[in-house]
Amino acid sequence: MPDFDKFVVKHKKLEKKKETTETITLRIDKDLLRDYDELAHKSDRSRNEVMNMALKFAYEHLKFMDKS
After folding, report:
1. Which of 14, 27, 49, 61 is the most buried (most CB within 10 A)?
2. Considering the entire predicted model, what is its pTM?
3. Please, what are the averages of pLDDT over each run of 10 residues along the chain (68 residues)?
């Protein structure tokens, strides 16, 4: 049974696609940054690619609870 609730990162393929991006500044915990760097290295992706994938996954699986 597939893990649909898991954030899956596969090794990067040789193909590249062009996307529109914005530059921002983000403060992040040092341990979490080290984890992202490790994952980026293992997957042959940039830290930026992995973090964008994680942010997109989090947004797509977000459940917003408005105040009642």
Report:
1. 49
2. 0.69
3. 71 65 93 97 94 94 87
